[in-house]
Tubulin polyglutamylase TTLL11 (Orycteropus afer afer), 700 residues
Amino acid sequence: MLPGSAERQQAAGWEAEAEAEAAAAEEAAEEQVHVEAGAAGEPECKTGGKLLRDLAPARPRAAEEGDARDAPRPSPSLPQSKGAPARGRCPHGKPRGKGRSCKRGSGRRPDESRARRPVTVDSSKARTSLDALKISIRQLKWKEFPFGRRLPCDIYWHGVSFHDNDIFSGQVNKFPGMTEMVRKITLSRAVRIMQDLFPEEYNFYPRSWILPDEFQLFVAQVRMVKDGDPSWKPTFIVKPDSGCQGDGIYLIKDPTDIRLAGTLQSRPAVVQEYICKPLLIDKLKFDIRLYVLLKSLEPLEIYIAKDGLSRFCTEPYQEPNSKNLHHIFMHLTNYSLNIHSGNFVHSDSANTGSKRTFSSILCRLSSKGVDIKKVWSDIISLVIKTVIALTPELKVFYQSDIPAGRPGPTCFQILGFDILLMKNLKPILLEVNANPSMRIEHEQELSPGVFENVPSLVDEEVKVAVIRDTLRLMDPLKNKRENQSQQFEKPLAGKEDSSDSDMATTPDVNTNSDAHLPSICLKQVFPKYAKHFNYLRLVDRLANLFIRFLGIKGTMKLGPTGFRTFIRTCKLSSSSLSMAAVDILYIDITRRWNAVTLDQRDSGMCLQAFIEAFFYLAQRKFKMLPLHEQVASLINLCEYHLSQMDEKRLMCGRSGTLGCRHTFSATPQEATPLAQLPEGTNPPHPNSANKLSQSKHVLS
């Protein structure tokens, strides 16, 4: 018992804090059972090596005699109890329950006790990234649940897609719809929309045609160019839409060489202009695998890993001709193909072999006088522009799987960007991978048909750092600890008690929790460089309009009523565009897009069909302007009408009357009636299209 009423009141003040400590102790007890169970049956590992040392679970320290009997050091503000407590009882003499600590104050700061609970990671669906993930978790001193967990975890690591498991809280390392968005056809369509708006900004992606839908267009355009320039002898590369790891890719010199033209309906593909003049190192063609973290969709946050991998072909490069067109080890850089070449070189050095670090390539280029900062600047620009092209439809997928107002996790994702450097050092986007390989070992053939997995130090160096630092950036407890620390220090500022001063100066155990780790390898590029790229986000604003008029939560397609509501609300109909014409426009575009898209889950207008309809309306309304200015002007007009409507509703809500008839109060700039605005004039809006005149390429 505490002597005196003052002491009892002070002890009561620590009750709430001890509650959290008790909950943490409960969870720690449960986790300890898992650890002890795993350690009891753990076989001895004899293979050794850094990888296995990092993966081996740490055995819990055996309790020493007297641990249970030793009372913790009492708080300076509380008088020390007389006599030691009995075994099995808390320092205050009460029975100690299993997994529970004493509810009275221990004198510690709240965040000190809570810091004992590590971040929990469910790795039961991690698949091929499991080994690198295990190493990362151990380096961070977090808690892994390889077989899942009955209680919710902080982070769920999926190997394939968002839907690998049903998640209702925490964070998951996949965005819904990302796998669909980076497929070759979908990516090509998304980039093509941006190329229509900003052709010079998106010239880093080869010209593409979608097969079989655009086969006749492909044949006609190639013939037209050849007729105009007989010396033009192009090469094209055909990539199956659902292919991966180089499966089904081949080169052609003429459209008539496309294989299985009659069965392309069952396996659609993309055909692109082949880059015939790549940068060579040691006479070999190579590409770059860069890892990009999409940390958040709204607001948009993008990080790029400071290092990546360079994958080399295994046969000296020659420009394509009829004799070498089918030499895959010369033209295709896919690791999964070249590993089967007799010339493939496994190396533990980052500077040699058929797989090297990108930083080693940059060092080599720098030694030859290449401006490495310019190369990085161009790559950063490519990555940001590509993500900007992907985010509009990702938003539609996101609101479908995680509707606003319903429980669901937050998402992040590591993407693999495959980039080719041309001879003039211009980066070219080859493709984007939603599930880049995170394996840190390779197969080595011991004898014919007998293989063994051998650790790859180059892969481990790059991939473990990417996963570990992604987890550090996504640490869900970091912000909580910082907020708790700030809240705890505020009441202490006005107190003069010496014991409180001692606690106030006690260092936070989490402040240096990353002191043993290297600096984070991921560099933020957006919103850091947002001012240089925000003018490109027109389609992103279009997606916001589309989502607003979807109506039903969870749907991804706009019905005819929603489209008519959009036209009426934004006042886009006129004497030259009747509502009957609007209905015909909706039917024609929707029918055509439903015939070429694979997603038949809902009937209605998909986002890409809505974008086509919007472009048509913009071209009708704002003639004699470039397409991007037409679209920007119509977006401004729509957002202007919607903001007026929203503000009027807000004023009606404040007045408490349903039939609100006040005159709408506007700023002096907005006071001009809309009918008086000349055709082609943008209504006032904070996101004006005038930003197009800003500098576009300067990256510090």
Q: What stands out?
A: The mean pLDDT is 78.
